[in-house]
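Quick start: read one record
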Amino acid sequence: MSSISSLPADIVAWLSEQEELSGIRFMTEYPPEKKAVPLKSAIVAVGLDEVKIEDSFSDDGTGVLVENEYCRLATMKIKLAIHIPFSEGGAKCHDVFSNVIDCLTFASDLNIIDSGCTDVTADRDTDALVLNAWINVCADFCPAVSSSLNFQSFMDKELLCGSHISDSVIHVTQEDKTHWN
């Protein structure tokens, strides 16, 4: 599920391209680069906080839930650390948060369940005000449907050897097959 691990970098790339957010610098959390101290402009660091993957179910039309055999439902908590220079004040943290969340909610393809933030705090190490925020995103992953690749984990759940798959007689006779079926 490399699409999950690459999600923060994908979000950073997408947000960086949005014209209405041009005054904000986006990066993945803990990048291997030096940052200006004291901070000179707004920075939003994007990372993964929690990931939960479970079986996916759908309604069969009669109100009964049926498991989507090859699909999984992922719920991910994406964390946003919004850093603002002291000179711009705490209200700027909430402005940046609102602008980023509005852009992700109304202009992206992300299925955002909810979002929120904590209090504004001061970080003396970076001489910045910090607002920790999050978005919860839900996504269906159905690689057997969306890919032409042969995923071994999406093959039939029965334990089969080559003779069973190719219907040839290597160590199982036709009489054995008839008896078992």
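The two ends are 37 Å apart (CA to CA).
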